[in-house]
Every structure is written in C-alpha cells, then in structure tokens.
C-alpha cells in the first residue's frame, strides 16, 4: 500500500501462461475473460494462426517473434481508459530498449503506440475491449514484436530486433516486458497518473513538429504534428492556427 493509501501494482499481481500455438493471444485472453478469469493474465504464444492488427489487418505470426496479450478486468473507469494505450507504448518501449545494443538506431514511439527503430516498425499494439455478461469490462492489450521475423509485404518500412543487432530471444524480451508493464501500470494508476505517462510518452515520441498525414476511416488529413494533449489525443496543426484533435488514425510522415 502506498503512503497515499492506494494499492500499488507489483510483479506478483500478474500471471503468465505460455502456449506453443493459438489462433490469437487476444482471442485467447477474451475467451478466458468470458469464462470468468479475474484478469492480470499474460498469454504468450510461439506462433499465432490468426494474428491480427488494427482494422482487422493480418499480423504475420511465425515462430521467432514475441506474441503476447495481457488481460485486464475493469482496469480503470471508462472515462480514463483512453490514456492506457500511451502507457502500454511506454512500457513496450522500455522493454525493447533493454535488449537493444549501444549504437542501435533511434527507438521511438509513433502515435499512438507503434514502436519504431530508425523509423521502421518493429512492434504493433492492438487494444480491444468487451463488456462481459456479468457487467465486468475486459480489456485486452495485444503486443506483437518482430524479434527475428518480418512480414514480406508491409504497409510501412519494417525491421526486427535481430536486424538491429539484438541477440535477445522472445522469452528474454518478454521477461523485460512483464516487469516494465507492471511498473508502468502502477505509475498509470487506473488513469490517475496520466500526467506522468504523457510526459514519458512525449520524451520518446517520433516526429513531433514534422509534417504528417493521418489516414482516418473516411478521409486523410495533413498538417504539422503538434504533439498530444493531456488525454493522449494527437494534435494536428492544419494551418491558420487551427488545431484538430484526433482520437484514432494511421500516421504517415512526410
């Protein structure tokens, strides 16, 4: 218990189940939630047969990479959940930084939570949620990190940790992620620690001040990346002093 009376989050609060193969670690976590699991459960798999990214895109999931999902139950009031992806990105960045050799290309976060090394994508994060029949809210954080395998036909430039000189195994990387996530979720404090999280995120962000294009479901919009607000929304300066807040979209630089 912290001096302010709140319950602290520690490594011992989390469980881990390692699978050889599954359709998707996110789907596995959701099935556990529907069956009554209490949350704080990590599920990892050596291979996924139906991995997916944002907007239903296929996520290539051959052996050699890290595929991990974390099940959280009622992690925060709904109005404070929007900042969780920023916290997750900070934790993943921290874990990858631990296994990169000195002199590796810059490790940065692309809004909201893609992890880039030298402006090339090495990690995707997919956050999904569902209200359960018993009233609890299940939130699943899916994390796929290219350790030694990369997709053949990517939408973006991609890299993997092996290409960046890291000899870490998926298991070693997950050990760092397990620890970093507990530390960052404690700092996030059910959304109350958003100020600390956004400060950490800004310090590792990619492209603030640069010209970007954001692809939305119905259109594309361009401008200067003016950073994020205190709730994690992307602030796009479209000119003439007009700042457009964006809650979700795909960002492209240049």
Describe this structure in words.
Helix content is 22%, strand content 31%. It has 4 helices and 12 strands; from the N terminus they run E-H-E-E-H-E-E-E-E-H-H-E-E-E-E-E. The chain has helices at 25-34, 84-99, 170-188, 194-203; strands at 15-22, 41-48, 66-73, 107-110, 114-117, 120-131, 137-145, 211-215, 220-228, 234-237, 243-246, 250-253. The strands form 2 sheets. Strands 1-2-3-7-6-5-4 form a 7-stranded mixed sheet, sandwiched between helices. Helix 2 (84-99) runs antiparallel to helix 3 and helix 2 (84-99) packs across helix 4 (194-203). The longest helix has 19 residues, at 170-188. It is globular and about 50 Å long. The relative contact order is 0.15.
- What is the overall pLDDT average? 90
Structural class: alpha+beta
For the termini, the CA-CA separation is 47 Å
Number of strands: 12
Q: Pick out the low-confidence regions.
A: none
Main beta sheet, described? 7 strands, mixed
- What strand line-up does the widest sheet have? 1-2-3-7-6-5-4
What percentage of the residues does DSSP assign to strands (E)?
Answer: 25-35%
* Share of helical residues: 10-25%
Radius of gyration: 18 Å
What series of H and E elements makes up the topology?
A: EHEEHEEEEHHEEEEE
Q: Using the alpha-carbon principal axes, give the shape.
A: globular
How many helices in DSSP terms? Answer: 4
Protein name: biotin--[biotin carboxyl-carrier protein] ligase
Domain BPL/LPL catalytic: 12-189
Pfam family, one: BPL_C
Keywords: ATP-binding, Biotin, Ligase, Nucleotide-binding
């Amino acid at each position: 218990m912290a001096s302010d009376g709140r319950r602290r989050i520690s490594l011992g609060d989390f469980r881990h189940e390692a699978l050889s193969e599954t359709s998707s670690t996110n789907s596995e976590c959701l099935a556990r939630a529907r069956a009554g699991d209490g949350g704080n459960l990590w599920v990892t798999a050596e291979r996924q047969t139906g991995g997916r990214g944002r907007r239903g895109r296929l996520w290539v999931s051959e052996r050699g990479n890290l595929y991990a999902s974390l099940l959280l139950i009622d992690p925060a009031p709904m109005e404070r959940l929007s900042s969780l992806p920023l916290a997750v990105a900070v934790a993943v960045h921290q874990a990858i930084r631990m296994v990169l050799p000195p002199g590796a290309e810059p490790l940065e976060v692309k809004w909201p939570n893609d992890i880039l090394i030298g402006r090339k994508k090495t990690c995707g994060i997919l956050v999904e949620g569902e209200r359960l029949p018993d009233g609890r809210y299940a939130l699943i954080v899916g994390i796929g990190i290219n350790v030694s395998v990369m997709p053949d036909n990517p939408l973006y430039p991609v890299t993997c940790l092996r290409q960046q000189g890291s000899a870490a195994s998926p298991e070693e990387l997950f050990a760092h992620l397990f620890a970093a996530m507990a530390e960052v979720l404690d700092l996030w404090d059910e959304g109350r620690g958003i100020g600390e999280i956004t400060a950490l995120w800004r310090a590792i962000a990619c492209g603030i001040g640069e010209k970007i294009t954001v692809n939305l479901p119905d259109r594309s919009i361009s401008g200067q990346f003016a950073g994020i607000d205190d709730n994690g929304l992307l602030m796009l300066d479209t000119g003439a002093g007009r700042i457009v807040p964006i809650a979700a979209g795909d960002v492209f630089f240049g």
